Amino acid sequence: MHALTVADMMTTQVKTLRASESIAAVDWNMLIGGFRHIPVVDHDYRLIGMVSDTSPATEGATTVASIMTREVHSISANVTALAAVEQMLLSKHNALPVVDDNHKLLGIVTSTDFLELARRALSGLDIQQPHVRG
After folding, report:
1. pLDDT at 131
2. 14 closest CA partner among 113, 128, 91, 102
3. Residue predicted with more confidence, 58 or 39
4. 14: domain range?
5. Which CATH number goes with the domain that contains 47?
6. Is 39 helix (H, G, I), strand (E, B) or coil?
7. Which end of the chain is more exposed for a tag (fewer CB within 10 A), N or C?
8. Which value, in Å, is the radius of gyration of the alpha carbons in the chain?
9. How many domains does the chain have?
């Protein structure tokens, strides 16, 4: 039995935004898509920021760049799920973008993913085959 990794449980089809998009795009994607965290990527799909449902919109802010967090905690896909949840608990973040060595976005792992893992474990289901989203 191998240790469960971030790659085993991350969502790979991630909704992303560009820094130049309007704040309305954030609102629309969070409302319609039900997202709480959306990574911001550049033209090479490298992670450059993150917006969340708690990102403050200051007066006069019109673009994603004006509200995104630029210092984003991210994680590698080969890190154990235990290390990822410990990082999330210590940093008090509910989502970690998953990136490769070039900071290209591969996916995202969220607190909801860990709640699903806990539900499976508590139900006696195989956690080596966790719920997979996109």
Report:
1. 54
2. 113
3. 39
4. 6-122
5. 3.10.580.10
6. strand
7. N
8. 15
9. 1
| Locus of tokens 């893992």 | 117
For residue 115 the two structure tokens come to 């709640």
Transcribe 74-103 into DSSP letters.
-B-TTSBHHHHHHHHHHHT-SEEEEE-TT-
| Sequence-separated contacts (24+) of 79-86 with Cβ below 8 Å | 79/5, 79/6, 80/3, 80/4, 80/5, 80/6, 81/3, 81/4, 81/5, 81/6, 81/8, 81/9, 81/114, 81/117, 82/3, 82/4, 84/6, 84/109, 85/114
The residue type of 111 is S
- Of all residues in the chain, the percent with pLDDT exceeding 70 is 95
Residue recorded with tokens 């890190």 = 79
> Is the pLDDT at 124 greater than 80, yes or no?
yes
